[in-house]
Amino acid sequence: PGEGTEETPLPLVLSRFQVSEEFGFLLPNPLTELPAPYGPWMEIARDLPQLLASRRLRSQVHQMPQLSTGHLRRREELHLAHLVLSFVTMGYIWQEGEEGTVKILPRNLAVPFWEVSQALGLPPILSHADFVLANWRRKDPNGNLDTIISLPGGDSLRGFILVTLLVEKAAVPGIKAIVQAVGALLQRDEEMLLGALRALAEAIGDMIQALRRMHDHVDPAVFYAVIRIFLSGWRDNPAMPQGLVYEGVSEEPMAFSGGSAAQSTVLHAFDELLGIRHSEESTAFLHRMRDYMPPPHRAFVEAIGRAPSLRQHLLSSSHLQLRAAFNQCVSALAELRSYHITIVTKYISIAAAKAKAGRAEPGDRAAPSMGKPPSALETKGTGGSHIFSFLKSVRDTTREGMITA
User: Fold this and answer.
1) Segment 355-378, tens digit of pLDDT
2) Are 23 and 132 a contacting pair, CB within 8 Å?
3) Which pTM does this prediction carry?
4) Is 268 annotated for ligand binding?
5) Does any domain span residue 106?
6) 63 lies in which domain range?
7) How many domains are there within the chain?
8) 332: domain CATH number?
9) What's the rounded Cα separation, in Å, for the pair 384 and 363?
10) What is the pLDDT of residues 1-20, one digit of tens each?
11) 151-186 burial, b for 16+ CB within 10 Å, e for fewer?
């Protein structure tokens, strides 16, 4: 006992941070149905693509009963409620595109969304924790996956969510390798550390392979013109400069960032272990994105930061294989970030240019036309960052993390 009682003790144990041995940061086997009293929420959420295509979502929300969140007991119920309410909220805000946003989220949606968010320690907006981590189900015994809740975008939206989920799943051996590496540092066991670093580099390689599947499952025209706006937040977004008033919660508008890959705990954990230091501006953005992670996952990243420094250990070690394995991890991480830039170029820059030229391919038939693509997002990520300067900066600072001589 003493001053350090709040600190998470080392070595790291995944279960203490709600991280699964099998699924990593993904929610294991999410619930797909809420308790009976929440039927009105589920009904609207299940019908979101149709309600948005016919511009009827806002009127449906206005007729929704004001429900108490008191019947939501288990963490899984709260996660599904947050998923449902976040999707309905994004649909409500962006139903009419960026020209027709609203300033107020009605009380019958805002109050329960706020309460569920407070219970989970998540912000009241759609984040990576909802969109990907808690939004999957097994469609059949063969292990085929599907989403639980959807938005406009048809197969491309489904592909975008599920490919991102496969990247998270591919990261699991890497998450376990972090735990092993921290244990090895505490025990000063260099062979165990070598095994952990090799496993981490391999996992990052598998994540790149998973990300490559994006090309097979997501149509760039649909992603850019239809899907992207629904991931946008009301912070650093010219379409909603004032933010959003959550009626019944606060009279002052609040501003939250939209969903972003920067909200995935995986890369934060890898950076923390490898001692990667980003620029001041990038670091500030990444640290802000940690507020969009489930608090136990954020605590996991912070606990890695309190462990003995891997980089310092290697700088003082003469073990050349260890340094080589470390540099392989850094190199793989830089390659993953480079590949992410390739994807963003295809799905945003090139798609934006085509949309501007009026040459957008008539993509996914299941997607309703949402009018013109959001101009506020031509150079920014849905999380609000200046997307290319941010991605190139973190890629370059990752490369600089190599240990030479």
Assistant:
1) 878 744 454 444 444 455 666 555
2) no
3) 0.92
4) no
5) yes
6) 14-356+375-401
7) 1
8) 1.20.58.480
9) 26
10) 334 445 667 889 999 999 99
11) bbbbbbbbbbbbbbbbbbbbbbbbbbbbbbbbbbbe
